[in-house]
């Protein structure tokens, strides 16, 4: 292995570690429940597009509002991700992973809603590190009764 090959290998491994960390911290942040402008800037590009089960939004500000309203329907959550496949092409990357999300409804019932599916994310390398530029969550199955969505869907 020559010096150029070694540099490319180290860069690829560094990129993979940074991307994995970003995605893990993003899911953990959903459970922490603090959604503000810093949260949005930490994880997303300004022109992010997100296609979620409760609607599609364009732009970081719209996503922040959408996620804040959507997560307010839950008292507590646990989001898990596994089997991530990361593809890197220069300053762009894609991440596909399986997701399992458990939600306790905030309606006082202690009802649990579980969803499982696949997340497809596109990332861009920015001056501040990797950021999510597009995401799509495809639900494969659910268990339990989901919360009512009219207010959230109307806002998206």
TrEMBL record:
Domain called SnoaL-like: residue spans: 11-134
Species annotation: Streptomyces cinnamoneus
Lineage: Bacteria, Bacillati, Actinomycetota, Actinomycetes, Kitasatosporales
Protein name per Swiss-Prot or TrEMBL: SnoaL-like domain-containing protein
Alphabetical list of InterPro entries matching this protein: NTF2-like_dom_sf (IPR032710), SnoaL-like (IPR037401)
Pfam families: SnoaL_4
């Amino acid at each position: 292995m020559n010096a150029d090959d070694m540099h490319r290998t180290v860069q690829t491994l560094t990129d993979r570690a940074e991307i994995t960390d970003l995605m893990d911290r993003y899911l953990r942040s959903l459970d922490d429940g603090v959604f503000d402008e810093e949260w949005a800037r930490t994880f997303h590009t300004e022109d992010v597009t997100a296609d979620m089960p409760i609607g599609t939004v364009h732009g970081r500000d719209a996503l922040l509002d959408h996620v804040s309203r959507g997560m307010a329907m839950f008292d507590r959550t646990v989001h898990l991700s596994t089997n991530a496949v990361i593809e890197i092409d220069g300053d762009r990357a894609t991440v596909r992973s399986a997701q399992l999300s458990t939600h306790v409804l905030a309606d006082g019932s202690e009802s649990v809603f579980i969803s499982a599916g696949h997340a497809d994310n596109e990332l861009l390398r920015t001056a501040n590190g990797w950021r999510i530029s597009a995401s799509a969550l495809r639900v494969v199955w659910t268990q339990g009764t989901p919360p009512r969505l009219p207010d959230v869907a109307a806002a998206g």
